[in-house]
């Protein structure tokens, strides 16, 4: 009776509970191993705009004991990317000042944080030098800024690679002209006039290949450069890199003499065309030189991490083109060169490589030993793994029913953020084996007062012999003898992966279950988290094969006693927006469908989406190649638009250039001409990231529109609406 009363006292998950979820990340263990920094991202009401919200991130300190946490930063401006000084007495972090990220330093023994940088370019990624005297960071510099920056571009010349402007050689057009703008003047004055129009945002002149950003076209490139600054007030940063190329993912050598970073392998090739990445050594003397450490034609090397003793380099590598994920590589390291490179056998997409010392030397002959910790998507969760660099053996430390979204490790202590069904994000500490987990924070304890639905995992053997995993979630409250609608919800990517340990869908799944829907979701062929062969199983087959897998899951879920088989609905976003349209063009079981920010015609997607390389990577060619065009047409939902009779709601962010809005406009307009039941929702200002990190009010709107549209056809007032 007590259990029944406690359950009934709980509330259902509401749509506005989205604003209560707090995400834990940015974890850094202190040098003494007794404390840790972490960040918490919250959704806060905007004080000046009713019903609007702002994302805020602030830095917390924990003593690695339950409840021993406190906020180090507060206020309207977020603080992020916090890192410890080597002596543990200070932290550096990034805060926005006048629209630009700047580095601040905060003493932990008392005193206010002071602003260390005041650069004209926004900065990010602070990293203390091993001696604690300097901080390296990254700055983002536009093409126009590069052309006029004498430190990053001595001589203020153009790049050595062609800017590909027709009719010009050697980039002569970038040279400074003394001509005054005059529409009726000489050719030089007309060019000056046209350039002024570009400056005044009256025109965009595009010559680059990757012209689409996330929210707008980007005629000009930008470049990331590394700087270093003394960790004292008033110090002036100096650039460590120069030229028209980007440097990312830097890591200090233990000696402090330089860093390793990632850049384009071929400096003579336009960055939009160069797909090979290389790892380079950059001395910290400000000379601007760098030395190639790892690079090879047709391959990418990235995510370099140096062992604590500086003698080994861990990294990720993969072919630069095609459908792939990174493999872990290890090599002996001298500081500027590697030898004895070996790849680790591990059939998952590893990330967040982190070295730790597992045993300190005692005695003259003793040698320190190390391990590498990392995470990878696998079977519906994001486990933590440990790699022994000596034996190359990988050990899984946490289970696939939860997700480690961020972590740090020091000796025998692991601090991590965990997602699970009972809580979307909290901070934990565990031993070196991931055991004896202790919950440190209580940022989302409000979830304990909600009635949750717990997924049941099942498997299906598909027609090509692969095991497909899927999960069924009952409505949050099921009454005996009552029937409920079933929602097939599908993931995008197509290499994404869903499961109980995947954080982005926690709220959406629980919300629909609280509204009385059952939910089924699957990881069809092509998903990440199941190995490279599984991930490549949808090459030249985005529609038919994955449809078999997700519909098998839906068919099995529909056999549950609580399912009303006459009230099945379907939705998905991005690639799953594609799959939603494909399915309703080939299957009529669903009473309504909602296709979100999808791709529907692969030829036009090749032109308008910034993810256009999916076309050659998955379908083996380009639309102007006859054989490839046949494959593209056969795999485009738009080819089968006339077969769609299921009521369809189509949504797209108005500034979404990942997939491009013409995709949804073509689908909507065609269905409208055909007289089919279709509605189109455009979200002003929204990008492809709408459902994850977009405007909060629009995120709420999105979920409510899914629910409201489905209720038109399967709700109590639907009146048996169908399409003949």
From TrEMBL:
Molecular function terms from GO: serine-type endopeptidase activity
SUPFAM superfamilies per record: alpha/beta-Hydrolases (SSF53474), Tricorn protease N-terminal domain (SSF69304)
Residue ranges annotated for the Peptidase S9 prolyl oligopeptidase catalytic domain, each copy included: 506-715
Highest taxon listed in the record's lineage: Bacteria
Keywords: Hydrolase, Protease, Serine protease
KW Ribosomal protein (keyword) present: no
Protein's recorded name: S9 family peptidase
Source organism of the structure: Fibrisoma montanum
């Amino acid at each position: 009776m007590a259990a029944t009363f406690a359950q009934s006292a709980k509330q259902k998950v509401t749509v506005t509970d989205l604003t209560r979820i707090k995400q834990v990340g940015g974890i850094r263990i202190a040098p003494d191993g007794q404390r840790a920094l972490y960040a918490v991202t919250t959704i806060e009401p905007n004080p000046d705009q009713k019903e609007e919200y702002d994302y805020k991130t602030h830095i917390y300190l924990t003593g690695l004991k339950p409840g021993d946490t406190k906020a180090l930063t507060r206020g309207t401006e977020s603080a992020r990317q916090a890192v410890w000084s080597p002596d543990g007495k200070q932290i550096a972090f990034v805060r926005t000042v006048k629209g630009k990220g700047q580095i601040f330093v905060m003493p932990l023994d008392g005193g206010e944080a002071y602003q260390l940088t005041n650069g004209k370019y926004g900065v990010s990624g602070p990293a203390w030098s091993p001696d604690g005297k300097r901080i390296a960071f990254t700055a983002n510099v536009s093409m126009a800024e590069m052309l006029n920056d004498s430190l990053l571009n001595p001589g203020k010349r153009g790049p050595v690679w062609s800017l590909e402007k027709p009719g010009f050689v050697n980039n002569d057009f970038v040279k400074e002209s003394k001509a005054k703008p005059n529409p009726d003047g000489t050719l030089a004055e007309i060019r000056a006039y046209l350039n002024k129009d570009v400056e005044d945002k009256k025109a965009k002149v595009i010559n680059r290949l990757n012209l689409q950003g996330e929210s707008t076209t980007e005629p000009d490139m930008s470049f990331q450069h590394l700087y270093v600054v003394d960790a004292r007030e008033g110090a002036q940063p100096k650039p460590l890199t120069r030229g028209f190329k980007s440097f990312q993912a830097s890591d200090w050598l233990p000696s402090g003499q330089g860093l390793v970073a990632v850049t384009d392998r071929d400096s003579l090739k336009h960055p939009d065309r160069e797909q090979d990445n290389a790892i380079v050594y950059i001395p910290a003397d400000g000379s601007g030189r760098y030395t190639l450490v790892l690079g090879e034609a047709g391959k990418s090397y990235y995510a370099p991490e140096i062992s604590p003793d500086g003698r080994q380099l861990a990294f990720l590598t993969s072919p630069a083109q095609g459908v792939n994920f990174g493999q872990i590589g290890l090599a002996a390291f001298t500081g500027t060169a590697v030898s004895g490179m070996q790849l680790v056998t591990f059939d998952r997409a590893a990330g967040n490589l982190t070295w730790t010392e597992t045993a300190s030397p005692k005695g003259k002959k003793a040698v320190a030993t190390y391990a590498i910790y990392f995470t990878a998507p696998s079977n519906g969760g994001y486990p933590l793994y440990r790699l022994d660099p000596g034996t190359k053996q990988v050990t899984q430390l946490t289970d696939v029913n939860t997700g480690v979204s961020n972590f740090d490790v020091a000796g025998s202590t692991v601090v991590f953020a965990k997602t699970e069904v009972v809580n979307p994000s909290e901070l934990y500490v565990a031993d070196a084996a991931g055991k004896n987990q202790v919950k440190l924070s209580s940022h989302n304890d409000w979830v304990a007062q909600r009635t949750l639905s717990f997924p049941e995992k099942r498997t299906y053997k598909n027609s090509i012999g692969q095991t497909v995993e899927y999960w069924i979630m009952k409505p949050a409250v099921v009454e005996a003898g009552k029937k409920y609608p079933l929602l097939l919800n599908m993931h995008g990517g197509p290499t994404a992966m869903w499961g109980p340990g995947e954080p982005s869908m926690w709220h959406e799944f629980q919300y629909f279950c609280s509204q009385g829907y059952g939910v089924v979701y699957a990881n069809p062929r092509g998903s990440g988290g199941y190995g490279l062969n599984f991930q490549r199983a949808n090459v030249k087959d985005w529609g038919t094969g994955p449809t078999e897998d997700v519909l098998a899951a839906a068919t099995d879920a529909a056999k549950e006693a609580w399912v009303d088989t006459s009230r099945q609905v379907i939705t998905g976003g991005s690639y799953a927006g594609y799959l939603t349209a494909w399915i309703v063009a080939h299957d009529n079981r669903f009473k309504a469908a909602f296709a979100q920010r999808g791709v529907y015609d692969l030829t036009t997607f090749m032109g308008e989406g910034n993810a256009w390389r999916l076309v050659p990577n998955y379908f083996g060619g380009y639309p102007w190649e006859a054989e490839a065009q046949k494959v593209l047409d056969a795999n485009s939902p738009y080819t089968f638009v006339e077969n769609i009779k299921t009521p369809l709601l189509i949504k797209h962010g108005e500034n979404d250039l990942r997939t491009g809005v013409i995709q949804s406009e073509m689908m909507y307009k065609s269905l409208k001409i055909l007289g089919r039941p279709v509605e189109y929702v455009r979200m002003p200002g929204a990008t492809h990231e709408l459902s994850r990190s977009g405007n909060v009010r629009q995120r709420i709107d999105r979920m409510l529109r899914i629910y409201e549209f489905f209720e038109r056809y399967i709700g109590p007032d639907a009146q048996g609406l169908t399409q003949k």
